[in-house]
Prior knowledge:
The structure is a homodimer of 144-residue chains. With 144 residues, the first copy, chain A, is of the alpha+beta class. Chain A contains four helices and six strands, in the order ααααββββββ. In chain A, strands 4-3-6 form a three-stranded mixed β-sheet, with no helix packed on it. The first copy, chain A, has a two-stranded antiparallel ribbon with strand order 1-2. In chain A, a hairpin with a 2-residue loop joins β1 (80-85) and β2 (88-92). The longest helix of chain A has 13 residues, at 63-75. Chain A is globular. The termini of chain A are far apart. The A-B interface holds A 81, 83-86, 89, 101, 104, 110, 112, 116-122, 124-142, 144 and B 81, 83-87, 89, 101, 104, 110, 112, 116-122, 124-142, 144. β6 of chain A pairs antiparallel with β6 of chain B, so a sheet runs across the interface. The structure holds a DNA duplex (30 and 30 nucleotides).
Amino acid sequence: MTKSKIGLYLNKVNDSVTLLRECGIQPTPQRIAVIEFILNTRSHPSADQALEQVRLQCPTISRATVYNTLNLLVKKGLVRTQIIREGTVVFDCNINQHHHFIDEETGNIYDIPWDQLEVKGKDRLKDFEIVEFQVILRGRRKKK
Amino acid sequence: MTKSKIGLYLNKVNDSVTLLRECGIQPTPQRIAVIEFILNTRSHPSADQALEQVRLQCPTISRATVYNTLNLLVKKGLVRTQIIREGTVVFDCNINQHHHFIDEETGNIYDIPWDQLEVKGKDRLKDFEIVEFQVILRGRRKKK
DNA sequence: AAAATATCTTGACAAAGTCTAAAATAGGAC
DNA sequence: GTCCTATTTTAGACTTTGTCAAGATATTTT
Ligand SMILES: [Mn+2]
Ligand SMILES: [Mn+2]
Ligand SMILES: [Zn+2]
Ligand SMILES: [Zn+2]
């Protein structure tokens, strides 16, 4: 279990502990609960949604600790934030480049793999030095 | 002066009055001040930034009126909101499709014309019915 | 001018997020 | 194990963004 395995599902507490240690974060029960939740969901939750879920495992955890831990994980590069929902930042365990589709009816956020879309014409933007980019699509997810 | 001229700079109070009337909005001094500000800036301000600026012209206007008026203009289709800044919605007087570049140093938001970028591969997203999309780029604007 | 509408302002409220200081906890030295 | 210290957690205060309701103003209708 190395940092390079981020993004795979972690089912064992041991994996989370190892991962936290590798990042120089002391693995407390609260932090373990947060990291196990956030690295195992693809739902792009807000901090308060994370709090709600983490409390199922760790009922006494405080709001400040969830915020602190999520921000710490962002700083260490284990998760990232996305600005795609109104009113709140969401946390994304997919730290590779990718695009997003937002279902406007449900609010659900779906990852679109990086290689599924190609953005042409960026070279023509002479005035801008692009550090990162993504396509954000909105609409409805088709029922199958 | 018709609704089709939205997006051009409005310098005369008369134009704003006409535009508001065309949308079925009674042109009060407060609403005129808001629309003159928001349709003449390309800076993608938040509601509170708009309040600050509008108060230079109309010092007694309340926060609620600025929020109400901006939301009314959105409902009438004169401006739109964008979710590209952390913590707050921004208002955009450019209601045509376009992309955005965010300067991460200054926070400035720049419009990228629709035809400067092309997004290929959308047809392959069989599970999704796309209503709208845009490319969001982040980085630094080059000094000239 | 009086009544009825429409609009604006104020202040209360809620949600998202940060911060502080005290309490709890964990680790190391002995 | 006890003591000491550094780290962590917690509760609550506070800020910002945004909405809402009630009363005050302004405008329109009669
Ligand atoms: Mn809010
Ligand atoms: Mn905030
Ligand atoms: Zn994602
Ligand atoms: Zn724009």
